[in-house]
């Protein structure tokens, strides 16, 4: 990112290891565009943008607020120099922590070793991509000067933040996701970045779920009614729903699906943080295994909290026109005729489905991402959002394939009280009945419309998510 510094802004200083004050003065003059001896936030942002190194509004503001000691809204040369000196000291500590053999250079094997101690496993080739992005002289090693120039204006303060700079992730919700939550730094928590990112993801999820709601309702109808007739297909299912309740009926149950996003997300992220603390000692880094266990348990906790809304969503989706006037009416009728226990019908298969879904989703996602980095990445360790979304869609699909039979049984248990003459079977009984009457394919009824909604859900969610992040001022990672 800052490779040009050595050749353009600091042609003498960078190459001949000039005094820090000389290097800082050269940079300050470049940023002080009006020559008044001070740099304001606008000049800093415009200067970095014109130099081809925009960091994002929050990162630039962090540099400015940290350096502006007298809080006059401007950086004079002394403040600018002090900030860079302090920042260089932090970068020097990070450099030394990676330079395991103390030879003054960072090699690919040292990056692999350092990240392993932090609970992150990458290949030698991925480590070389990291080096390549920093290496200015083509030696495939990074010395202190290259390291310093690369991170000169990056406000990361330690090796963990630098790793977050190397790692890119998205917080997109596509409707059936039980994926492990992203982690937020203390700075992101203090600055409010965390709730903005969650809000952006929640709004994106609401728009995405609403856009694909007809396919979601069709999936539920095929799961519940498919056993009665083998004739229900995608076209016939849509025709039956429109004939019974009109076009609007295609979105029946979507209100509940959207409403549960906020509490589900909030509980999942809160529980994830608590489980991480339980599974790791203070100061210990969270590894992949701990993330998987914490994520699975957080998903289970969130599902326990919002599960009655899942039941109501199914009842509304399966119900006939006029059967329920809304969410409240649906809840009141279930409570009156079936009792509190009805709100947790299908809870056991739903809970069991979380483990294979979350485990396979995480494992396949990391496998696909690593495969792409090892075989297709050329000059960056960041796969880019298109690759990450593709990995996410494929990993989610694999997770759904493994957990779908449990999801189908869950839906049948949620809805079987509405089906006239249907015996009230438990999970094992339903599995036996489906396999005996419909065979193994019966466990996958409705999976086609479920898969049909993945790509549009991902696309819509991404577009809305990125636009909401810009609107809410979420910094790019």
TrEMBL record:
Molecular function via GO: ADP:phosphate antiporter activity; ATP:phosphate antiporter activity; calcium ion binding
Superkingdom classification of source: Eukaryota
Keyword terms: Antiport, Calcium, Membrane, Metal-binding, Mitochondrion, Mitochondrion inner membrane, Repeat, Transmembrane, Transmembrane helix, Transport
Subcellular location: Mitochondrion inner membrane
Gene3D superfamilies: EF-hand, Mitochondrial carrier domain
Residue span, EF-hand domain: 19-54, 86-121, 122-157
Renumbered ranges of Solcar repeats: 192-278, 286-371, 383-471
GO annotation, cellular component aspect: mitochondrial inner membrane
Ribonucleoprotein in keyword set: no
Reactions this protein catalyses: AMP(out) + phosphate(in) = AMP(in) + phosphate(out); dAMP(in) + ADP(out) + H(+)(out) = dAMP(out) + ADP(in) + H(+)(in); 3'-AMP(out) + phosphate(in) = 3'-AMP(in) + phosphate(out); phosphate(in) + ATP(out) + 2 H(+)(out) = phosphate(out) + ATP(in) + 2 H(+)(in)
Function of the protein: Electroneutral antiporter that mediates the transport of adenyl nucleotides through the inner mitochondrial membrane. Originally identified as an ATP-magnesium/inorganic phosphate antiporter, it also acts as a broad specificity adenyl nucleotide antiporter. By regulating the mitochondrial matrix adenyl nucleotide pool could adapt to changing cellular energetic demands and indirectly regulate adenyl nucleotide-dependent metabolic pathways. In vitro, a low activity is also observed with guanyl and pyrimidine nucleotides.
Family the entry assigns: Belongs to the mitochondrial carrier (TC 2.A.29) family.
Summary of subunit composition and partner proteins: Monomer.
PANTHER family listed in its UniProt record: SOLUTE CARRIER FAMILY 25
Name of the protein in its database record: Mitochondrial adenyl nucleotide antiporter SLC25A24
Organism name: Callithrix jacchus (White-tufted-ear marmoset)
